[in-house]
Design brief:
6% strand, mainly alpha, single chain, 64% helix, two-stranded antiparallel sheet
Protein backbone atom coordinates (compact mmCIF):
# COMPACT_ATOMS: atom_id res chain seq x y z
CA UNK A 1 0.00 0.00 0.00
CA UNK A 2 2.85 2.38 0.92
CA UNK A 3 4.65 1.69 -2.35
CA UNK A 4 1.44 2.34 -4.28
CA UNK A 5 1.00 5.72 -2.55
CA UNK A 6 4.62 6.64 -3.27
CA UNK A 7 4.12 5.67 -6.91
CA UNK A 8 1.01 7.86 -7.17
CA UNK A 9 2.84 10.80 -5.57
CA UNK A 10 5.74 10.39 -8.03
CA UNK A 11 3.34 10.26 -10.99
CA UNK A 12 1.65 13.46 -9.80
CA UNK A 13 5.04 15.17 -9.51
CA UNK A 14 6.04 14.03 -13.01
CA UNK A 15 2.72 15.22 -14.42
CA UNK A 16 3.16 18.60 -12.73
CA UNK A 17 6.67 18.96 -14.19
CA UNK A 18 5.41 18.25 -17.71
CA UNK A 19 2.54 20.72 -17.31
CA UNK A 20 4.81 23.46 -15.92
CA UNK A 21 7.34 22.96 -18.71
CA UNK A 22 4.58 23.43 -21.27
CA UNK A 23 2.85 26.34 -19.52
CA UNK A 24 6.05 28.35 -19.00
CA UNK A 25 7.15 27.91 -22.62
CA UNK A 26 3.70 28.70 -24.04
CA UNK A 27 3.29 31.78 -21.88
CA UNK A 28 6.66 33.39 -22.62
CA UNK A 29 6.26 32.60 -26.33
CA UNK A 30 2.73 34.05 -26.47
CA UNK A 31 3.76 37.19 -24.57
CA UNK A 32 6.84 37.87 -26.72
CA UNK A 33 5.06 37.91 -30.10
CA UNK A 34 3.53 41.03 -31.68
CA UNK A 35 0.00 41.20 -33.07
CA UNK A 36 -0.73 39.02 -36.11
CA UNK A 37 2.08 36.61 -35.26
CA UNK A 38 0.22 33.52 -36.51
CA UNK A 39 -1.79 32.65 -39.65
CA UNK A 40 -4.96 34.77 -39.78
CA UNK A 41 -4.63 35.87 -36.15
CA UNK A 42 -5.91 39.31 -37.09
CA UNK A 43 -9.17 37.86 -38.48
CA UNK A 44 -9.53 35.47 -35.56
CA UNK A 45 -8.90 38.12 -32.93
CA UNK A 46 -11.65 40.28 -34.45
CA UNK A 47 -14.19 37.63 -33.40
CA UNK A 48 -12.88 37.45 -29.82
CA UNK A 49 -12.75 41.25 -29.62
CA UNK A 50 -16.33 41.54 -30.92
CA UNK A 51 -17.59 39.14 -28.23
CA UNK A 52 -15.62 41.03 -25.55
CA UNK A 53 -16.74 44.48 -26.77
CA UNK A 54 -20.39 43.44 -27.04
CA UNK A 55 -20.59 41.84 -23.58
CA UNK A 56 -20.79 38.24 -24.76
CA UNK A 57 -22.97 38.72 -27.85
CA UNK A 58 -22.03 36.37 -30.70
CA UNK A 59 -21.62 37.83 -34.20
CA UNK A 60 -23.07 36.61 -37.46
CA UNK A 61 -20.53 35.37 -39.95
CA UNK A 62 -21.27 38.21 -42.36
CA UNK A 63 -21.11 41.01 -39.79
CA UNK A 64 -19.24 43.94 -41.37
CA UNK A 65 -17.39 44.63 -38.10
CA UNK A 66 -15.42 41.39 -38.38
CA UNK A 67 -15.58 40.62 -42.11
CA UNK A 68 -12.24 40.63 -43.93
CA UNK A 69 -12.24 42.96 -46.93
CA UNK A 70 -10.04 40.70 -49.06
CA UNK A 71 -11.61 37.31 -48.40
CA UNK A 72 -15.13 38.62 -47.77
CA UNK A 73 -15.79 36.34 -44.79
CA UNK A 74 -15.11 36.13 -41.07
CA UNK A 75 -14.12 33.33 -38.71
CA UNK A 76 -17.51 33.62 -37.03
CA UNK A 77 -18.76 31.09 -39.59
CA UNK A 78 -16.54 28.51 -37.90
CA UNK A 79 -17.06 27.19 -34.35
CA UNK A 80 -16.13 30.03 -31.98
CA UNK A 81 -15.88 28.45 -28.52
CA UNK A 82 -12.16 29.21 -28.32
CA UNK A 83 -12.84 32.87 -29.18
CA UNK A 84 -15.54 32.99 -26.49
CA UNK A 85 -13.01 31.80 -23.92
CA UNK A 86 -10.47 34.33 -25.25
CA UNK A 87 -13.10 37.04 -24.78
CA UNK A 88 -13.62 35.87 -21.18
CA UNK A 89 -9.88 36.24 -20.52
CA UNK A 90 -10.03 39.71 -22.07
CA UNK A 91 -12.91 40.61 -19.75
CA UNK A 92 -10.94 39.54 -16.69
CA UNK A 93 -7.87 41.47 -17.90
CA UNK A 94 -9.95 44.61 -18.48
CA UNK A 95 -10.91 44.63 -14.80
CA UNK A 96 -7.24 45.39 -14.10
CA UNK A 97 -7.16 48.17 -16.70
CA UNK A 98 -5.71 46.17 -19.60
CA UNK A 99 -6.07 47.60 -23.09
CA UNK A 100 -4.46 47.32 -26.53
CA UNK A 101 -1.69 44.71 -26.70
CA UNK A 102 -2.45 43.62 -23.12
CA UNK A 103 -5.95 42.52 -24.21
CA UNK A 104 -4.44 40.57 -27.11
CA UNK A 105 -2.11 38.80 -24.70
CA UNK A 106 -5.03 38.02 -22.44
CA UNK A 107 -6.90 36.53 -25.41
CA UNK A 108 -3.88 34.34 -26.22
CA UNK A 109 -3.95 32.89 -22.70
CA UNK A 110 -6.95 30.80 -23.76
CA UNK A 111 -4.76 29.07 -26.34
CA UNK A 112 -1.94 28.74 -23.81
CA UNK A 113 -4.44 27.01 -21.53
CA UNK A 114 -5.71 24.67 -24.26
CA UNK A 115 -2.28 23.35 -25.24
CA UNK A 116 -1.19 23.12 -21.58
CA UNK A 117 -4.28 20.99 -20.89
CA UNK A 118 -3.47 18.91 -23.98
CA UNK A 119 -0.05 18.10 -22.49
CA UNK A 120 -1.72 17.18 -19.19
CA UNK A 121 -4.10 14.72 -20.88
CA UNK A 122 -1.25 13.29 -22.97
CA UNK A 123 0.73 12.55 -19.79
CA UNK A 124 -2.34 10.86 -18.27
CA UNK A 125 -3.02 8.91 -21.48
CA UNK A 126 0.61 7.79 -21.81
CA UNK A 127 0.39 5.89 -18.52
CA UNK A 128 -2.46 3.83 -19.93
CA UNK A 129 -1.21 3.49 -23.50
CA UNK A 130 2.18 2.29 -22.25
CA UNK A 131 1.43 0.45 -18.96
CA UNK A 132 4.20 -0.42 -16.52
CA UNK A 133 3.72 -4.15 -17.05
CA UNK A 134 4.97 -3.86 -20.65
CA UNK A 135 6.82 -0.54 -20.93
CA UNK A 136 9.29 1.51 -18.94
CA UNK A 137 8.51 4.99 -17.67
CA UNK A 138 10.97 6.42 -20.21
CA UNK A 139 8.73 5.21 -23.05
CA UNK A 140 5.85 7.25 -21.65
CA UNK A 141 8.15 10.26 -21.44
CA UNK A 142 9.18 9.84 -25.07
CA UNK A 143 5.55 9.80 -26.22
CA UNK A 144 4.69 12.90 -24.16
CA UNK A 145 7.69 14.78 -25.56
CA UNK A 146 6.89 13.79 -29.14
CA UNK A 147 3.18 14.53 -28.98
CA UNK A 148 3.07 17.42 -26.53
CA UNK A 149 6.26 19.32 -27.38
CA UNK A 150 6.25 19.22 -31.16
CA UNK A 151 7.33 22.79 -32.04
CA UNK A 152 4.33 23.37 -34.31
CA UNK A 153 1.89 22.10 -31.66
CA UNK A 154 3.47 24.46 -29.11
CA UNK A 155 3.25 27.34 -31.61
CA UNK A 156 -0.50 26.74 -31.96
CA UNK A 157 -0.82 27.60 -28.28
CA UNK A 158 0.78 31.03 -28.64
CA UNK A 159 -1.67 33.00 -30.81
CA UNK A 160 -5.44 33.28 -31.18
CA UNK A 161 -6.81 30.30 -33.16
CA UNK A 162 -9.04 27.23 -32.89
CA UNK A 163 -6.37 24.60 -33.64
CA UNK A 164 -5.25 24.74 -30.01
CA UNK A 165 -8.71 23.72 -28.80
CA UNK A 166 -8.70 20.91 -31.37
CA UNK A 167 -5.42 19.63 -29.91
CA UNK A 168 -6.85 19.68 -26.38
CA UNK A 169 -10.06 17.91 -27.36
CA UNK A 170 -8.11 15.23 -29.28
CA UNK A 171 -5.87 14.68 -26.24
CA UNK A 172 -8.96 14.32 -24.02
CA UNK A 173 -10.53 11.82 -26.42
CA UNK A 174 -7.26 9.87 -26.58
CA UNK A 175 -7.26 9.77 -22.77
CA UNK A 176 -10.81 8.35 -22.83
CA UNK A 177 -9.76 5.71 -25.37
CA UNK A 178 -6.68 4.76 -23.34
CA UNK A 179 -8.76 4.57 -20.16
CA UNK A 180 -11.19 2.21 -21.89
CA UNK A 181 -8.32 -0.14 -22.82
CA UNK A 182 -7.40 -0.54 -19.14
CA UNK A 183 -10.75 -0.06 -17.39
CA UNK A 184 -13.61 -0.77 -19.86
CA UNK A 185 -16.39 1.70 -20.72
CA UNK A 186 -17.09 2.86 -17.18
CA UNK A 187 -19.47 5.78 -16.67
CA UNK A 188 -16.48 8.00 -15.99
CA UNK A 189 -14.77 7.07 -19.26
CA UNK A 190 -18.02 7.47 -21.19
CA UNK A 191 -18.49 11.00 -19.85
CA UNK A 192 -14.86 11.93 -20.57
CA UNK A 193 -15.39 10.75 -24.14
CA UNK A 194 -18.61 12.78 -24.43
CA UNK A 195 -16.95 15.99 -23.21
CA UNK A 196 -13.99 15.40 -25.52
CA UNK A 197 -16.24 14.92 -28.56
CA UNK A 198 -18.31 18.03 -27.69
CA UNK A 199 -15.17 20.16 -27.44
CA UNK A 200 -13.88 18.65 -30.68
CA UNK A 201 -17.14 19.55 -32.45
CA UNK A 202 -16.69 23.14 -31.28
CA UNK A 203 -13.04 23.39 -32.32
CA UNK A 204 -12.07 22.83 -35.94
CA UNK A 205 -13.69 20.79 -38.71
CA UNK A 206 -10.47 19.00 -39.69
CA UNK A 207 -10.45 17.33 -36.23
CA UNK A 208 -13.87 15.70 -36.71
CA UNK A 209 -12.23 12.36 -37.52
CA UNK A 210 -11.78 11.96 -33.76
CA UNK A 211 -15.57 12.07 -33.32
CA UNK A 212 -16.19 9.57 -36.12
CA UNK A 213 -13.55 7.15 -34.86
CA UNK A 214 -14.85 7.46 -31.28
CA UNK A 215 -18.22 6.28 -32.53
CA UNK A 216 -16.59 3.31 -34.25
CA UNK A 217 -14.42 2.43 -31.22
CA UNK A 218 -17.33 2.50 -28.80
CA UNK A 219 -19.68 0.46 -31.02
CA UNK A 220 -17.10 -2.12 -32.15
CA UNK A 221 -15.60 -2.75 -28.72
CA UNK A 222 -19.01 -3.06 -27.05
CA UNK A 223 -20.43 -5.42 -29.68
CA UNK A 224 -17.29 -7.51 -30.30
CA UNK A 225 -15.09 -7.39 -27.20
CA UNK A 226 -17.48 -7.76 -24.30
CA UNK A 227 -18.25 -11.27 -23.04
CA UNK A 228 -21.96 -10.93 -22.12
CA UNK A 229 -24.73 -12.40 -24.27
CA UNK A 230 -25.59 -10.37 -27.38
CA UNK A 231 -28.79 -8.94 -25.90
CA UNK A 232 -26.86 -7.50 -22.94
CA UNK A 233 -24.21 -6.06 -25.25
CA UNK A 234 -26.88 -4.36 -27.36
CA UNK A 235 -28.57 -3.02 -24.23
CA UNK A 236 -25.22 -1.67 -23.01
CA UNK A 237 -24.52 -0.15 -26.43
CA UNK A 238 -27.78 1.77 -26.61
CA UNK A 239 -27.88 2.64 -22.90
CA UNK A 240 -24.42 4.13 -22.53
CA UNK A 241 -24.29 5.17 -26.16
CA UNK A 242 -27.42 7.28 -25.67
CA UNK A 243 -25.87 8.86 -22.57
CA UNK A 244 -22.68 9.72 -24.47
CA UNK A 245 -24.65 11.14 -27.39
CA UNK A 246 -26.95 13.07 -25.07
CA UNK A 247 -24.12 14.76 -23.16
CA UNK A 248 -22.24 15.50 -26.41
CA UNK A 249 -25.27 17.10 -28.08
CA UNK A 250 -26.20 19.01 -24.91
CA UNK A 251 -22.73 20.57 -24.78
CA UNK A 252 -22.19 21.38 -28.46
CA UNK A 253 -25.59 21.22 -30.15
CA UNK A 254 -26.39 24.88 -29.47
CA UNK A 255 -23.81 26.00 -32.04
CA UNK A 256 -25.27 23.96 -34.88
CA UNK A 257 -28.85 24.87 -33.97
CA UNK A 258 -27.81 28.54 -33.99
CA UNK A 259 -26.25 28.10 -37.43
CA UNK A 260 -29.40 26.40 -38.69
CA UNK A 261 -31.54 29.31 -37.47
CA UNK A 262 -29.22 32.08 -38.73
CA UNK A 263 -28.31 30.50 -42.06
CA UNK A 264 -31.55 28.89 -43.25
CA UNK A 265 -30.74 25.32 -42.23
CA UNK A 266 -27.01 25.43 -43.02
CA UNK A 267 -25.95 23.77 -39.74
CA UNK A 268 -22.21 23.83 -40.52
CA UNK A 269 -22.34 27.29 -42.10
CA UNK A 270 -20.08 26.22 -44.96
CA UNK A 271 -22.42 27.00 -47.86
CA UNK A 272 -23.36 30.35 -46.34
CA UNK A 273 -19.68 31.16 -45.84
CA UNK A 274 -18.96 30.45 -49.53
CA UNK A 275 -21.90 32.60 -50.59
CA UNK A 276 -20.66 35.41 -48.35
CA UNK A 277 -17.20 35.22 -49.92
CA UNK A 278 -18.73 35.34 -53.37
CA UNK A 279 -20.64 38.47 -52.42
CA UNK A 280 -18.08 40.47 -50.43
CA UNK A 281 -14.59 39.25 -51.37
CA UNK A 282 -12.17 41.14 -53.58
CA UNK A 283 -12.87 40.07 -57.16
CA UNK A 284 -9.73 37.90 -57.50
CA UNK A 285 -10.47 36.11 -54.19
CA UNK A 286 -14.06 35.10 -54.84
CA UNK A 287 -14.55 31.29 -54.86
CA UNK A 288 -15.70 31.43 -58.50
CA UNK A 289 -12.51 33.26 -59.58
CA UNK A 290 -9.83 32.06 -57.16
CA UNK A 291 -7.23 29.91 -59.02
CA UNK A 292 -7.47 26.54 -57.29
CA UNK A 293 -5.59 23.46 -58.61
CA UNK A 294 -8.92 22.13 -59.86
CA UNK A 295 -9.53 25.24 -61.98
CA UNK A 296 -5.93 25.18 -63.23
CA UNK A 297 -6.30 21.50 -64.22
CA UNK A 298 -3.32 20.49 -62.09
CA UNK A 299 -2.70 16.88 -61.16
CA UNK A 300 -1.22 15.87 -57.81
CA UNK A 301 2.30 15.72 -59.16
CA UNK A 302 1.95 19.37 -60.16
CA UNK A 303 0.83 20.22 -56.62
CA UNK A 304 3.46 18.14 -54.83
CA UNK A 305 6.39 19.63 -56.73
CA UNK A 306 5.03 23.17 -56.96
CA UNK A 307 7.25 25.77 -55.26
CA UNK A 308 5.87 29.22 -54.51
CA UNK A 309 8.46 32.02 -54.84
CA UNK A 310 8.06 32.71 -51.10
CA UNK A 311 8.68 29.10 -50.02
CA UNK A 312 12.00 27.52 -49.11
CA UNK A 313 10.87 24.11 -50.36
CA UNK A 314 8.35 22.55 -52.73
CA UNK A 315 4.74 21.98 -51.61
CA UNK A 316 5.22 18.50 -50.14
CA UNK A 317 8.36 19.37 -48.20
CA UNK A 318 6.83 22.63 -46.99
CA UNK A 319 3.91 20.66 -45.57
CA UNK A 320 6.34 18.31 -43.78
CA UNK A 321 8.54 21.01 -42.25
CA UNK A 322 5.54 23.16 -41.25
CA UNK A 323 3.96 20.12 -39.55
CA UNK A 324 7.11 19.94 -37.44
CA UNK A 325 7.50 23.68 -36.95
CA UNK A 326 7.24 26.78 -39.14
CA UNK A 327 6.33 29.96 -37.29
CA UNK A 328 5.03 33.47 -37.78
CA UNK A 329 3.15 33.88 -41.05
CA UNK A 330 4.85 30.78 -42.47
CA UNK A 331 8.06 32.81 -42.67
CA UNK A 332 10.16 31.64 -39.70
CA UNK A 333 11.69 28.26 -40.52
CA UNK A 334 13.53 25.88 -38.26
CA UNK A 335 17.02 24.89 -39.52
CA UNK A 336 16.44 22.39 -42.29
CA UNK A 337 18.85 19.90 -40.68
CA UNK A 338 16.71 19.88 -37.53
CA UNK A 339 13.58 19.19 -39.59
CA UNK A 340 15.43 16.35 -41.33
CA UNK A 341 16.30 14.84 -37.95
CA UNK A 342 12.65 14.94 -36.91
CA UNK A 343 11.59 13.31 -40.20
CA UNK A 344 14.21 10.57 -39.76
CA UNK A 345 13.03 9.99 -36.18
CA UNK A 346 9.43 9.60 -37.41
CA UNK A 347 10.36 7.39 -40.37
CA UNK A 348 12.43 4.95 -38.32
CA UNK A 349 9.75 4.78 -35.61
CA UNK A 350 6.97 4.05 -38.10
CA UNK A 351 9.14 1.40 -39.79
CA UNK A 352 9.64 -0.19 -36.37
CA UNK A 353 5.89 -0.79 -36.11
CA UNK A 354 6.24 -3.68 -38.53
CA UNK A 355 8.51 -5.40 -36.02
CA UNK A 356 5.74 -5.40 -33.40
CA UNK A 357 3.84 -8.66 -33.56
CA UNK A 358 0.07 -8.48 -33.70
CA UNK A 359 -0.21 -4.68 -33.70
CA UNK A 360 -3.05 -4.69 -36.20
CA UNK A 361 -4.40 -8.16 -35.46
CA UNK A 362 -8.15 -7.99 -34.82
CA UNK A 363 -8.23 -11.31 -32.99
CA UNK A 364 -6.35 -11.95 -29.75
CA UNK A 365 -3.26 -14.09 -30.23
CA UNK A 366 -0.46 -15.52 -28.13
CA UNK A 367 2.66 -17.56 -28.67
CA UNK A 368 2.90 -21.01 -27.06
CA UNK A 369 6.26 -22.77 -26.66
CA UNK A 370 5.98 -26.53 -27.03
CA UNK A 371 8.70 -29.11 -26.38
CA UNK A 372 8.99 -31.91 -28.94
CA UNK A 373 11.27 -34.92 -28.96
CA UNK A 374 12.87 -35.14 -32.42
CA UNK A 375 15.54 -37.81 -32.90
CA UNK A 376 16.33 -37.89 -29.17
CA UNK A 377 16.71 -34.10 -29.11
CA UNK A 378 14.34 -31.79 -27.30
CA UNK A 379 13.23 -29.00 -29.62
CA UNK A 380 11.37 -25.92 -28.52
CA UNK A 381 8.81 -24.88 -31.08
CA UNK A 382 7.02 -21.53 -30.81
CA UNK A 383 3.49 -21.64 -32.19
CA UNK A 384 1.16 -18.69 -32.71
CA UNK A 385 -2.29 -19.43 -31.38
CA UNK A 386 -5.10 -17.12 -32.54
CA UNK A 387 -8.12 -16.87 -30.26
CA UNK A 388 -11.72 -16.41 -31.36
CA UNK A 389 -11.92 -13.35 -29.11
CA UNK A 390 -11.72 -9.92 -30.71
CA UNK A 391 -8.81 -7.74 -29.67
CA UNK A 392 -9.71 -4.30 -28.30
CA UNK A 393 -6.13 -3.13 -28.87
CA UNK A 394 -6.26 -4.36 -32.48
CA UNK A 395 -9.42 -2.32 -33.10
CA UNK A 396 -7.79 0.65 -31.33
CA UNK A 397 -4.74 0.44 -33.60
CA UNK A 398 -6.80 0.20 -36.79
CA UNK A 399 -8.75 3.31 -35.78
CA UNK A 400 -5.52 5.14 -34.96
CA UNK A 401 -4.46 4.46 -38.56
CA UNK A 402 -7.80 5.86 -39.72
CA UNK A 403 -7.10 8.97 -37.64
CA UNK A 404 -3.92 9.39 -39.64
CA UNK A 405 -5.71 9.05 -42.96
CA UNK A 406 -8.77 11.28 -42.39
CA UNK A 407 -6.90 14.60 -41.84
CA UNK A 408 -4.76 13.88 -44.92
CA UNK A 409 -7.86 13.31 -47.07
CA UNK A 410 -9.58 16.45 -45.72
CA UNK A 411 -6.42 18.49 -46.30
CA UNK A 412 -5.96 17.21 -49.85
CA UNK A 413 -9.60 17.95 -50.65
CA UNK A 414 -9.22 21.50 -49.31
CA UNK A 415 -5.99 22.06 -51.24
CA UNK A 416 -7.41 20.83 -54.54
CA UNK A 417 -10.84 22.46 -54.45
CA UNK A 418 -10.37 25.55 -52.24
CA UNK A 419 -6.87 26.87 -51.64
CA UNK A 420 -3.44 25.48 -52.46
CA UNK A 421 -1.93 25.99 -49.01
CA UNK A 422 1.09 24.08 -47.76
CA UNK A 423 0.48 24.47 -44.03
CA UNK A 424 1.20 21.41 -41.91
CA UNK A 425 -1.10 22.72 -39.16
CA UNK A 426 -4.02 21.34 -41.15
CA UNK A 427 -2.64 17.86 -40.40
CA UNK A 428 -2.31 18.44 -36.64
CA UNK A 429 -5.26 16.13 -35.78
CA UNK A 430 -2.99 13.29 -36.97
CA UNK A 431 -0.20 14.28 -34.55
CA UNK A 432 -1.15 12.04 -31.61
CA UNK A 433 -1.73 8.77 -33.52
CA UNK A 434 1.46 9.35 -35.52
CA UNK A 435 3.53 9.94 -32.38
CA UNK A 436 1.93 6.91 -30.71
CA UNK A 437 3.11 4.68 -33.56
CA UNK A 438 6.53 6.35 -33.65
CA UNK A 439 6.94 5.64 -29.91
CA UNK A 440 5.72 2.07 -30.27
CA UNK A 441 8.10 1.46 -33.17
CA UNK A 442 11.14 2.91 -31.40
CA UNK A 443 10.39 0.87 -28.30
CA UNK A 444 10.42 -2.28 -30.41
CA UNK A 445 13.64 -1.34 -32.21
CA UNK A 446 15.54 -0.42 -29.04
CA UNK A 447 14.28 -3.52 -27.22
CA UNK A 448 15.65 -5.69 -30.02
CA UNK A 449 18.91 -3.84 -30.66
CA UNK A 450 19.92 -2.55 -27.21
CA UNK A 451 19.82 -5.41 -24.72
CA UNK A 452 21.23 -3.42 -21.79
CA UNK A 453 18.24 -1.89 -20.00
CA UNK A 454 20.24 0.98 -18.47
CA UNK A 455 21.67 2.00 -21.82
CA UNK A 456 18.19 1.84 -23.32
CA UNK A 457 16.80 4.05 -20.55
CA UNK A 458 19.51 6.65 -21.13
CA UNK A 459 18.78 6.71 -24.86
CA UNK A 460 15.11 7.43 -24.11
CA UNK A 461 16.04 10.12 -21.60
CA UNK A 462 18.46 11.91 -23.90
CA UNK A 463 16.03 11.90 -26.85
CA UNK A 464 13.18 13.05 -24.60
CA UNK A 465 15.22 15.94 -23.19
CA UNK A 466 16.27 17.00 -26.71
CA UNK A 467 12.65 16.93 -27.86
CA UNK A 468 11.58 19.13 -24.95
CA UNK A 469 14.49 21.52 -25.44
CA UNK A 470 13.70 21.86 -29.17
CA UNK A 471 10.66 24.21 -28.89
CA UNK A 472 12.44 26.20 -26.16
CA UNK A 473 15.35 26.64 -28.59
CA UNK A 474 12.93 27.67 -31.34
CA UNK A 475 11.59 30.42 -29.12
CA UNK A 476 15.01 31.60 -27.91
CA UNK A 477 16.95 31.42 -31.19
CA UNK A 478 14.24 32.00 -33.81
CA UNK A 479 11.25 33.87 -32.38
CA UNK A 480 12.98 36.34 -30.04
CA UNK A 481 15.68 37.47 -32.56
CA UNK A 482 13.15 37.65 -35.41
CA UNK A 483 10.85 40.09 -33.62
CA UNK A 484 13.65 41.92 -31.80
CA UNK A 485 15.16 42.85 -35.16
Amino acid sequence: MLKKKESEINEKKITMIWVLLAFILLTVWAMSQPFHAGPDEEMRYLVADYIYSNHGALPRGDDSAIRNATWGISYAYYPILSYMISAAFMGVASIFGASGIALLRAARMADVLFVTCAVYFLVKASGKLFPREKFSGEVRGLFTALAGFMPQAIFLGTYVNTDSLALMSAALILYAWASYLREDWTWKNCMILAVGMALCALSYYNAYGWILCSFFLFCLTVLLCREEPLTQRVRFLFGRGAAIAGVTVALCGWWFVRNGILYDGDFLGRKTCTACAEKYAHKDYRPSCYPTPEKLNWNWLDIIFYQDPGWYHNWALTVCVSFIGTFGLMGIYMPYMVSKMYIALFAVGVAGIFLVRGTFCLKESRFVVQKKNVADDIWKIKTKVISKKWSAEGIFHILMVLLLIIPVILFMDYVYYNDNQAQGRYLMPALYPLMYFVTLGWNRILTKVVKNEKVRSWIYRVVTVLLVISPYACWAFLIVPYYAG
